[in-house]
Amino acid sequence: MKKKDKKGLARTTKKEDAKLAVTAYTDEERAIISRAAERRNNPPPKYIEGESKGRHLSIALPKEKPHLVHAKIALALGTVDNSTETFLLNQAIQSFPDSVPGIDRVNITAALMYGIAPDNEVEGMLGLQMVATHNLAMELLGRAMRYDCWDATRDGVNMATKLLRTYKAQMEALNRNRGKSPSQKVTVEHVHVNAGGQAIVGNVERTPTGRGKEGGDAKK
Q1: Which of 31, 62, 129, 213 has the most CB atoms at less than 10 Å from its CB?
Q2: What was the pLDDT predicted at 184?
Q3: C-alpha neighbours within 13 Å on the C-beta side of residue 131
Q4: What is the sign, positive or negative, of the torsion defined by CA atoms of 64, 66, 68, 72?
Q5: Distances, alpha carbon 200 to alpha carbons 3, 68, 103, 209, 212, in Å
Q6: What pLDDT does residue 23 have?
Q7: Which stretch of 2-6, 72-76, 119-123 has the lowest confidence by average pLDDT?
Q8: CB 78, CB 123: distance < 8 Å
């Protein structure tokens, strides 16, 4: 229903405005929104700035649900030891550009590590190496974009490329440690055996001499 204002112009009611504001989403879009909502319900841990101690950054746990935040930090860094937690965080924040405030460095590290979700201190160290490798690679790429000298740009891109390969190797190492190493799976659909030939059914391992080691039954 439309009402008229003082000038006699038609306008919609607030209820009609609300209906117009509702957007129709597809099932796929609703699924995306739902996944994002799930992540918002489980946000990464976040520190707050503590009392200033000269030039050193002081961080503290928020007053609201401090035990929950501390538990999340333990899961993010892969350790329940406070000294190790402080040591790892101090290492990580050194890999950020100077333009990033200290408290942001700590919270960004905590958020990234919460996503990596290390199971122990070893995975925690590897995760921090991934954060540092990513930071330096992106810093080099950013500088390469701003260089006026082609040689400097090329050197920056080359170094960043090596770091990105290192990042990939770090991720593969993390997956191997978690037992998620990619394995090859071969499915045989048709086997043709010529006269006098032999079909091997089972796993075949290649030896240095090139001979096959049969891991199954042989059928003629």
Answers
A1: 129
A2: 54
A3: 32
A4: positive
A5: 84, 57, 62, 19, 10
A6: 74
A7: 2-6
A8: yes
For residue 89, give the nearest of 63, 128, 46 by alpha carbon: 128
Residue pair 170/133 in contact by the 8 Å Cβ criterion? yes
Distance of alpha carbon 112 from alpha carbon 104, whole angstroms: 12
CA 202 – CA 200 distance, rounded (Å) = 6
Reported in sequence order, the residue ranges of the chain that DSSP labels E, i.e. its strands, are 2-4, 10-12, 48-49, 59-60, 199-200, 204-206, 212-214, 218-219
Amino acid at 91: Q
Buried b (16+ CB within 10 A) or exposed e, 60-77: ebeeeeeeebeebbbbbb
b/e code 148-180 from CB counts within 10 Å (16+ = b): eeeeebeebbebbeebbebbeebeeebeeeeee
Reported as a pLDDT band with limits 50, 70 and 90, residue 171 is very high
